[in-house]
Amino acid sequence: MAAIGSSNIGFKLLKKSGWKEGTGLGAQEQGRLEPVETRVKNNKRGIGSKESKPKPKVEDDVEKDPQKPKQDMQSKKRAKLAAKRIRKIQEEEKRLQEKEFEMAFFREFWPDNV
Question: How many domains does the chain have?
Fold first, then answer.
Protein backbone atom coordinates (compact mmCIF):
# COMPACT_ATOMS: atom_id res chain seq x y z
CA MET A 1 0.00 0.00 0.00
CA ALA A 2 1.33 3.42 -0.89
CA ALA A 3 1.53 6.35 1.48
CA ILE A 4 -1.25 8.90 1.50
CA GLY A 5 -0.62 11.84 -0.80
CA SER A 6 -0.08 15.30 0.71
CA SER A 7 -3.22 16.55 -1.08
CA ASN A 8 -5.41 14.09 0.90
CA ILE A 9 -7.71 15.76 3.46
CA GLY A 10 -6.82 13.15 6.10
CA PHE A 11 -3.12 13.86 5.57
CA LYS A 12 -3.72 17.60 5.97
CA LEU A 13 -5.74 17.12 9.16
CA LEU A 14 -3.06 14.89 10.69
CA LYS A 15 -0.31 17.39 9.81
CA LYS A 16 -2.37 20.17 11.38
CA SER A 17 -2.70 18.19 14.63
CA GLY A 18 1.07 17.69 14.95
CA TRP A 19 1.71 14.39 13.20
CA LYS A 20 5.03 13.97 11.39
CA GLU A 21 5.16 12.12 8.10
CA GLY A 22 6.76 8.66 8.37
CA THR A 23 5.85 8.16 12.06
CA GLY A 24 3.04 6.17 13.68
CA LEU A 25 -0.09 7.75 15.14
CA GLY A 26 0.35 6.42 18.70
CA ALA A 27 1.46 8.43 21.75
CA GLN A 28 5.04 7.12 21.39
CA GLU A 29 4.79 7.29 17.59
CA GLN A 30 4.14 3.56 17.38
CA GLY A 31 1.44 2.07 15.17
CA ARG A 32 0.74 1.77 11.48
CA LEU A 33 2.73 3.79 9.03
CA GLU A 34 0.49 3.03 6.08
CA PRO A 35 -3.31 3.38 5.83
CA VAL A 36 -5.56 0.36 6.26
CA GLU A 37 -6.45 -1.16 2.90
CA THR A 38 -10.13 -1.07 2.01
CA ARG A 39 -12.13 -3.26 -0.34
CA VAL A 40 -15.67 -3.01 -1.68
CA LYS A 41 -17.80 -5.89 -0.37
CA ASN A 42 -20.68 -6.94 -2.63
CA ASN A 43 -22.14 -9.79 -0.58
CA LYS A 44 -23.97 -10.12 2.72
CA ARG A 45 -21.72 -12.78 4.23
CA GLY A 46 -19.94 -10.59 6.80
CA ILE A 47 -16.55 -8.98 7.07
CA GLY A 48 -13.69 -11.35 6.31
CA SER A 49 -15.81 -13.99 4.60
CA LYS A 50 -14.39 -15.14 1.31
CA GLU A 51 -17.05 -17.72 0.51
CA SER A 52 -19.90 -16.78 -1.76
CA LYS A 53 -23.51 -17.26 -0.72
CA PRO A 54 -24.69 -20.88 -1.14
CA LYS A 55 -26.78 -21.50 -4.24
CA PRO A 56 -30.45 -22.49 -3.71
CA LYS A 57 -31.38 -26.08 -4.48
CA VAL A 58 -32.80 -26.64 -7.94
CA GLU A 59 -36.22 -28.27 -7.92
CA ASP A 60 -37.99 -30.08 -10.74
CA ASP A 61 -40.58 -27.35 -11.35
CA VAL A 62 -37.80 -24.77 -11.70
CA GLU A 63 -36.67 -26.42 -14.89
CA LYS A 64 -40.22 -26.31 -16.28
CA ASP A 65 -40.88 -22.64 -15.48
CA PRO A 66 -37.82 -20.57 -14.48
CA GLN A 67 -39.98 -17.47 -13.79
CA LYS A 68 -42.12 -19.17 -11.14
CA PRO A 69 -39.58 -19.13 -8.26
CA LYS A 70 -38.80 -15.49 -8.95
CA GLN A 71 -42.51 -14.59 -8.88
CA ASP A 72 -43.02 -16.63 -5.69
CA MET A 73 -40.15 -14.82 -3.98
CA GLN A 74 -41.49 -11.42 -5.06
CA SER A 75 -44.98 -12.23 -3.77
CA LYS A 76 -43.50 -13.49 -0.47
CA LYS A 77 -41.51 -10.27 -0.12
CA ARG A 78 -44.62 -8.18 -0.81
CA ALA A 79 -46.63 -10.18 1.74
CA LYS A 80 -43.87 -9.78 4.33
CA LEU A 81 -43.67 -6.02 3.74
CA ALA A 82 -47.47 -5.70 3.91
CA ALA A 83 -47.53 -7.62 7.21
CA LYS A 84 -44.81 -5.36 8.58
CA ARG A 85 -46.77 -2.23 7.55
CA ILE A 86 -49.95 -3.58 9.15
CA ARG A 87 -48.06 -4.38 12.36
CA LYS A 88 -46.63 -0.85 12.47
CA ILE A 89 -50.05 0.69 11.91
CA GLN A 90 -51.54 -1.45 14.68
CA GLU A 91 -48.74 -0.44 17.06
CA GLU A 92 -49.31 3.23 16.23
CA GLU A 93 -53.09 2.90 16.79
CA LYS A 94 -52.47 1.23 20.15
CA ARG A 95 -50.07 3.99 21.15
CA LEU A 96 -52.60 6.66 20.17
CA GLN A 97 -55.37 4.91 22.14
CA GLU A 98 -53.14 4.78 25.22
CA LYS A 99 -52.31 8.47 24.84
CA GLU A 100 -56.00 9.35 24.44
CA PHE A 101 -56.85 7.32 27.56
CA GLU A 102 -54.14 9.15 29.48
CA MET A 103 -55.43 12.54 28.29
CA ALA A 104 -59.00 11.61 29.28
CA PHE A 105 -57.77 10.54 32.72
CA PHE A 106 -56.00 13.85 33.26
CA ARG A 107 -59.01 15.82 31.96
CA GLU A 108 -61.24 14.07 34.50
CA PHE A 109 -59.04 14.75 37.53
CA TRP A 110 -57.25 17.95 36.55
CA PRO A 111 -59.48 19.75 34.00
CA ASP A 112 -57.66 23.07 34.43
CA ASN A 113 -54.28 21.68 33.40
CA VAL A 114 -55.32 19.92 30.18
Answer: 1
